[in-house]
């Protein structure tokens, strides 16, 4: 009888430890997220299921073109691409991205831009000064984010710059639907 009690106790202990481990991993390391809407087309599609690495920015800062998840409001998280980093100036002129006055290629937009008819613009002109609350350069611990679907995205052009405190983490892995499973390439 004592052996059965010990076996049950061992099972309960194992389940509690597994539950705690799952909770810690979910809260502090990885979490699932579902893409809602067309703002990251063509890179991400509506209803793509992804894994967010919450640990990534505890060890380092965001890099240009990372796809990040951040708290846009207290109830809503958004997925966008990092375009501008602290200390930089950002401008889009004639559908071309300029960082600190230098042209920067956005390879992830090339196919979409090729689909446009003559004289159509994919990203309308803007400078940092046009962004709500922005200054001449991006302040420390802030980033500028844009959706890949530049004509239909609520991003820094409307929300303003995103502080590091708002970042949930970095995402680059789609796990559902199965025909889209994989790591996103720049």
For the structure shown, list the relevant keywords.
12 strands; 4 helices; Umud Fragment, subunit A; 30% strand; 186 residues; elongated; LexA/Signal_pep-like_sf; alpha+beta; 22% helix; Signal peptidase I; 8-stranded antiparallel β-sheet
Walk me through the topology:
Layout: H1 2-28, E1 30-34, E2 49-53, H2 56-59, E3 67-71, E4 77-84, E5 90-93, E6 96-99, E7 102-104, H3 110-115, E8 126-127, E9 142-146, H4 156-159, E10 162-163, E11 167-176, E12 182-183
Antiparallel strand pairs: 1-2, 2-11, 3-4, 3-11, 4-9, 5-6, 5-8, 6-7, 9-10, 11-12
Q: What is the CATH superfamily?
A: Umud Fragment, subunit A
The CATH topology comes to Umud Fragment, subunit A
Low-confidence runs of at least 5 consecutive residues: none
Beta percentage is 25-35%
Distance between the termini: 61 Å
Q: What's the number of helices? A: 4
The domain count comes to: 1
User: What can be said about the biggest beta sheet?
Assistant: 8 strands, antiparallel
What's the rounded overall pLDDT mean? 87
């Amino acid at each position: 009888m004592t052996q059965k009690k010990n076996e049950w106790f061992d099972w309960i202990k194992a389940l509690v430890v597994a539950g705690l481990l799952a909770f810690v991993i979910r809260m502090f390391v990885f979490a699932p997220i579902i893409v809602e809407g067309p703002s990251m087309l063509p890179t991400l599609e509506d209803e793509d299921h992804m894994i967010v690495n919450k640990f990534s920015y505890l060890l380092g800062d965001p890099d240009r073109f990372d796809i990040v998840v951040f708290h846009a409001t207290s109830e809503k998280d958004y997925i966008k691409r990092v375009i501008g980093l602290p200390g930089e100036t950002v401008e889009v002129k004639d559908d071309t991205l300029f960082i600190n006055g230098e042209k920067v290629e956005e390879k992830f937009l090339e196919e979409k831009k090729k689909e446009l008819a003559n004289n159509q613009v994919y990203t309308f002109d803007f400078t940092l000064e046009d962004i709500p609350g922005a200054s001449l350069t991006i302040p420390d611990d802030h980033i500028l984010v844009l959706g890949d679907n530049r004509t239909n995205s609520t991003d820094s052009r409307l929300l303003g710059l995103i502080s590091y405190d708002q970042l949930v983490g970095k995402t680059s892995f789609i796990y559902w639907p199965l025909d889209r499973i994989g790591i996103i390439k720049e």
